[in-house]
Structures are given as C-alpha cells and as structure tokens.
Amino acid sequence: MKQLSRISLTIVSLFLCLLTLSSCSNNFANPDQLEAEVLTIIRNNPEAILQSLQAYQQEKQQELAQSRQAFLQQMSTEPASIIGNSPTTGVAKNNIVLLEFSDFQCPFCAEANQSVKQFMDKHSDQVTLVYKHLP
Questions:
Q1: What is the C-alpha separation between 126 and 135, in angstroms, rounded?
Q2: Domain residue spans in the chain?
Q3: In this predicted model, what pLDDT tens digit does every residue of 31-55 receive, in sequence order?
C-alpha cells in the first residue's frame, strides 16, 4: 500500500512537471526543443536521479527489515499463526520452532533435508519442525 501511494505521488509529481514544462513550452519553438532541454538538464544533473534511486532502495531495505522484524515478533508471540495448517513433527509445545521452506522436487532441498533430519533426530524432544512447501 505504501509503495502504491509512493507511485501515485511520483505520477502526480511528473504530471505537475509536465504541466510546468508545457506552460514554459511557449519559450520553445517545438516539442523537440523542449525534449532536448529536458535531456540536457538530466545530463547536467545525473546525481539527482542517482540520489532518488538510492533513497528508493534505502526505503525498500527499511521496509524489508521492518517486515522481517514483524514476522519474528509474530513468530515469538504467536507461533500458531505462522504454523497454521502446515505439517509439523517433534514436540507439540512450539517453544522452539524450526521453519523449513522446501520443495519436494528440488534436489538441493533433498540434500538439505538430510541435515534437518539429523538435527531433528537429536532434538525432536525440544524442537517443533514446521514444513512449508515452497516450490
């Protein structure tokens, strides 16, 4: 939702810029001259585009970090909401939960499953293993 509002704001800003440029276009003989002027401004100030991209990337990284933190918080306070109807094995208390995101058809997942199986053989009395199918 936040990304949609940012995109909307960007579109509105571009529209206002175009309106401003069109009102200034009386100073230009033709649209090609206006386009050339805009390109010149962009070429003379490339750092503005880079700064905008960097700010956008930083915002996305912050959103991802917040999302991860919210997931971890939910996992620690309400593990049942994350587990849902997923298959589980091990202890039923959900004090320690290991989420396995895997794919039945993936050869790498099959290799990793051997390590998970060894871990669960040792700790099945302490850990709840939750399988999440992620093809």
A1: 28
A2: 2-77, 79-133
A3: 888 888 888 888 888 888 888 899 9
